[in-house]
Amino acid sequence: METDGFAPAKINLCLHVIGQRPDGYHLLDSLVVFADIGDRLQAAPSETMTLDLAGPFGADIPAGEDNLVMRAARAMDAVPMRITLEKHLPPASGIGGGSSDAAATLRLLARLTGRALPKPEQVLALGADVPACLLAAPLRLQGIGERLEPLRLGPPVWAVLANPRAEVSTPAVFRALTRKDNRPMPPRIPAFADARALALWLADQRNDLEAPAIAVLPSIAAVLSALSATGQCLLARMSGSGATCFGIYPDEAAAREAEADLRAQRPGWWIAACRFALS
Ligand code: C5P
After folding, report:
1. Ligand 1 atom at minimum distance from 28 CA
2. Is the entire prediction scored with pTM above 0.95?
3. Where are the beta strands (DSSP E) in the chain?
4. ipTM of the complex
């Protein structure tokens, strides 16, 4: 029995804010993909439900019942487990770390206990990104995160993720957003032959949270320019509500070179080359 789970980093290749609900949540139209890097989970039956934190960012997230992993485990109503979360993704950074951890917990506990995986719409209460992370495949996200359309858009693409090592509060970024009725994505997203075609199409799309996030944390602008300045960067944009930004590259060699250059220039930043699936 497989006792470990993978919680991939989520990347919003574009994120359009197209409205707001009466309860304050924002209506989004976003192209979401998942990377081959992420957090790791392990679970084993135990007398009590416990969570151990490990990995480079294990000390930076809440332990105990406040952690989304514990909330997801409670929602599954599973037998008590000792869960270990190896945290490799920087927290509160726009790449869905907590949501992806919650989704990976649901997948892992469903597998270990033989229970059915909850439907995506049943896990929205854990966080607006949790339904998407439960699918963990390329998709168009609409509504506040409950309308999900899986997509098959082409071969995998190489990217570099960069974070200035400062946490950003998602509600603060939404509060700093001035215009809430922006243009959605086109009705149909085309297939992309390669990274260049994807970057060309994305250049006409946006992340509407980029400007408000920069107002909250100005160093995000430096991350975007540093990524844009790397050789062969096809497009640089922020993911989610920041502060992590991504650059898209034509191939693995270009992404690895950009990763090495950025690490040399910015030893204090978190920088990681990765590949994301588009199908
Ligand atoms: O659902 P989650 O806990 O991830 O959302 C964090 C906060 O981000 C919410 O409390 C809300 O302020 C904001 N949010 C929003 N619209 C969304 C998703 C999140 O306004 N679609």
Report:
1. 21
2. yes
3. 4-20, 26-45, 50-54, 81-86, 139-143, 147-150, 157-163, 235-238, 245-249, 270-276
4. 0.95
